[in-house]
Structures are given as C-alpha cells and as structure tokens.
Amino acid sequence: MKVACREVYGKTLVELGKTNPDIVVLDADLSVSTKTSTFAKEFPNRFFDMGIAEQDMISTAAGMAACGKIPFASTFAVFGSGRAWDQVRLTCAYTRLNVKIVVTHGGITTGEDGASHQANEDLAIMRAIPNMNVIVPADGFECAKIIRAVAAYHGPVYVRLPRLATPLIHENDNFDLKLGKGIVMREGKDTTIFACGIMVAMAMEAAEELSKNGVEARIINLHTIKPLDKELIIKCARETGAAVTAEEHSIMGGLGGAVAEALVENCPIPMARVGIKDVFGESGKPDELLVKYGLTAKEIVAAAKAVLKRKT
Amino acid sequence: MTSPQKIKELEQTANKLRRHIIEMICRAQSGHPGGSLSAADIITVLYFYKLRHKPQEPNWPDRDRFVMSKGHAAPVLYAALAEAGYFPLAYLNTLRQIGSSLQGHVDMLSLPGIEMSTGSLGMGLSAANGMAMACRLDKRQNRIYCLMGDGEIQEGQIWEAAMTAGHQKLDNLTAFIDHNKYQIDGQVSEIKEIQPIADKFKAFGWHTLSCDGHNMKSIIEALEKAEKLKGKPTIIIAETVKGKGVSFMEERPLDYHGKAPTPDEEEKALKQLCEIEFKEQK
C-alpha cells in the first residue's frame, strides 16, 4: 500500500491546528501541491499565501515565531532550502526561532519537472547550518509522527517530503519514533544499510535479496539526518563491520556524508554511498529516473556486496 | 504637541547616542559609524518618545517592536538600548570584541531588546511583517517599526515584503528609510537608482510620508501621522545625512561607511559633538 506523505502532512496540520491556536501556516503559491491547502480550508485566518516569494515567506515566518506563533512554512524542497537559504540561516537558525520548514517534492522522483525542480542538495545545505534539524520521513506513518513531534519541539526544523505516494514500511503506527534516534528495521550481522526517505523501502528489498545469497544486512532508518544518531551508527559499525548508505539525494553532504563523517572519526570501516553522483537530474518518469540515477534495490545490493569484499 | 523641553531632551539624548557610537567604534577599531549617525535621531525618537516598551521587562508581550533591518547600524541601537536601561552602559565598551554580547550585527539571542537578528540586508521588513501579522492575529494594540537603509532597498526581498505588507494591509506597521544617499561603493543614485522611492511604495499599497530625519519635531509628526493612517502600512522616508554630527564624516561619507575613525579623529568628533550640546544648552 502506498501513501503520499504530503497528504498526511496536510491532515496532520489540521489536527494540530484544532488543538493549538498558535499554529499558523505559510505557503508560497504551492498550497495545492504541498497540501497546506487542507489547513487553509479549515483555518483561513491562520493561513497565509505569501505568493511566489520564498525568501519573504521564510523571514515572515521568523517574525511570527518571534511573537510566539508556531509557523509551518511550505514550498518545494528546492525553493525552501535553496532560494531562501540565507533567510533560513540568519532569521530562523541563528535566532533559533520556532520555524518549521516542511517541504515537498524532495529528490529526483519529482520527475517530469526536471532538474530545476529536483532538490538533490537540500539535505546537505540545510545540514550545514548550525541549530538546524533535518528530517526525512520514510513513510506516511512516520510523517504523521514527525510532524507532531516537530510541532512539539521548540526550534527550527527542516522536514523533507517526497512528491509521490510511497510504500508503507511500517504495518501500523504502533511504533516509537524519537527525533534524532534511528529505527532498526531489520537485524543483521554482515553489514549495515543506513537509509532515509523512499530508500528505506528499497533497502528492505535489498536486504531480502542479500539474504537469499547468505548475507544478513541490518537496516537502519535514519529519519533524522541532523542531529545524527552517532551512537547507533557507531554501534552498528562495530557490530557489522561494513556500511552502505542509501538516499534520494547527492552522495555529497547528505545522509551518506553525515554517516561517513561519523564513521571516519569513530570507527572507520568499508563503506559505500548509494545516491545521486554529483550530477543534475532531468525530466522523466520517477521510476525511470530512479533506475538511470542508480537509486534502486539492485544498486544497494551491489554496494553491499562491494563493501563486504573490502571487509577484512 | 511636543513641548520644546521634550524636544530639547531628545536632542540631548541623540547627541549622547552619537558620542557612544564614536567611542564604541573607536574602541573596537571596527564598525559602521556613518549609517549609525544618520539614524541616531530616528532611533532616539523611537526609544525615548514613541515606543511603548519596558526595558526592565524586555519580553512584555504587548510592547511595540522595532526591527533594525540595516543590521550594520548596530552601534546606534546598542547605545539606545543601554541608555534606555536594557543593559549596563559599560557593555558598550565591548562592541565587536570576542565573547561580547554586542555583536558586529544585531543578534536577538545575545542581548535583551533586540527583536530580530539581521546583518544580511533585506530581511528585516519581512520579519517586521510577520510580527505585525502575528500581533494582529492576537488582537494586540501594539505597533511594529522597522528601519531600512536606502541602499538596502536594492535587495529584492524588500520588494517581496513591501508587496506583502501592502496586500495584508498592515496598518500596525510603520517602516523608515534612512535616506542618507550613500552605500559602500558610492552614491546610491550612481550605484543603482532607487528613486522614486515614495512612488514605488505607493504602488505597492503603502501610505507614504517624509520627514527631516535630523529634526525631532519632524520625525515625531511623521510617526504620529503614521499611527493614524489606517488600511495600509506606512513608509516614512527620512532625509538624513550620512555621518551626521561629525563634520569630516559628513564631508567624506564614503570613507566612514564601515571604517573606524583614528584616535585623533575620535577626539575631533567627540569635541564637535560636545560643542553641539554646549550650543544647544545656551
């Protein structure tokens, strides 16, 4: 079964809006796509369409937060992170204001719109900002929990959602999710696959395949890229001796970069990064793009086999 | 009507702020004197006449809020906050020093009384809009003020924000432009013309006023008029002189945008400012 995280986002905002009058929502002319339109219908007085002006939207949200509001500001990932980067840095993060930047259309599965709209660098540029929290839910159940958790947390947060409906990786919402703590999705002793977002489901598929070949891969769902769950990463590295990362993002600076930084300083082991290899995407169907740009279970299997060979 | 006595008091306060600015920047041997001096009278009227604020209770929710969008004019705001009692005057000695709360550009987390961190130009008006929108939602009676530089309005975000304020009809917002006519690289009109400023804001849905930014009565009148104007935000274009109060800075504003005076110049500047005060007292 597939669920679109952005639909869940819209519904969860309405739920939160009912109990917390301080929640306000801003969008930059993409409310129908980001699903903040769901909130707008329910609470028109607390919804602000800022027009096509992402920089203004982010600093306006900061001003609202300075007056005690809990603003959720939404647009596409490429604009929320890139177009408004300086505004996020200075007016949201430096100030540690309570602004939630929840973006949709993250990654290459944005598809037909092409490279201009495919944010493959957003996690890296958001992660580099002090005080920022960077989160990527892996399915609809996680998305609902994450939106509720970031509303309860005081401080700036960047949450990245995909455009498409994606497979549910949890059977129900009966699981614990703590911001900053990875989730063990599958036990294994031979290698660890760290994944986030849509790549968690693919990592699960890869683990099944590897298991058929006698390789038991542990799967860690790192929904929080920052603050990174270093403790869990190091523990897995020690126990399994090899690591693969998988993300719908450049292999530079995102999940793969973060895990590599943690491992190289604490427990250097053979490692491979599955992700977009420092290139721009292009127009195409999401499934075709995933194959062309190397974001598949097959790629994860190949990467796992390669690191296993390097294991001493 | 403001009494002549009050006007005189404000003039003396502005002069005091100017002396603090010179002393702070000279001690730090770093900072932006020109644009701090040009804004000194506006800041004085705001902090010592207009703003409803409680320096002893800086987070009072119904306070008027001021956003310094031209964050490099930090010294004038620090001087005003210290004189108003937000923190000890002695802090002013630490401007731009390592470990100090008085950062080179204003930082809301390090000092009480700073409503928004700025420094990268063009962001303050958006933040002020957000405050005005939030306070209106909460049905507060307070007002939001913002000060922009004239060169600063070359930033595109200013015009996004100008459009927002006009569209949202933020009549609880009054913004100033410190029209001192100079930016780092030269005269604003030569670098990139911003005129006609009033027509531009008018077209974006604002009430527009102007004032003599070095005349207390003129600033006060503009502010009081702005408070009565309903249905739209108001911009006050304040005609100012970069380096105001210090002759050699007024004459060579480009040399003192972001450069500290030498010790000799400091002495000369302070002497001039003291003479102004002496003349006023006579």
Strand-helix topology:
The complex is a heterodimer of chains A (312) and B (282).
Chain A: E1 2-4, H1 5-19, E2 23-27, H2 31-34, H3 37-42, E3 47-49, H4 54-66, E4 70-76, H5 77-83, H6 85-94, E5 100-104, H7 122-127, E6 133-135, H8 140-152, E7 157-160, E8 165-167, E9 183-186, E10 191-195, H9 199-212, E11 217-221, E12 224-226, H10 230-240, E13 243-250, H11 255-266, E14 271-276, H12 286-292, H13 297-310
Parallel strand pairs in A: 2-3, 2-4, 4-5, 5-7, 6-7, 10-11, 10-13, 13-14
Antiparallel strand pairs in A: 1-8, 6-12, 9-11
Helix pairs in contact in A: 1-8, 4-6, 9-13, 10-11
Chain B: H1 4-28, H2 33-38, H3 40-50, E1 65-68, H4 74-84, H5 124-137, E2 144-149, H6 156-167, E3 173-179, E4 182-183, E5 186-187, H7 188-191, H8 197-203, E6 207-212, H9 216-228, E7 234-239, H10 247-251, H11 263-281
Parallel strand pairs in B: 1-2, 2-3, 3-7, 6-7
Antiparallel strand pairs in B: 4-5
Helix pairs in contact in B: 1-3, 1-4, 1-11, 3-4, 3-9, 5-6
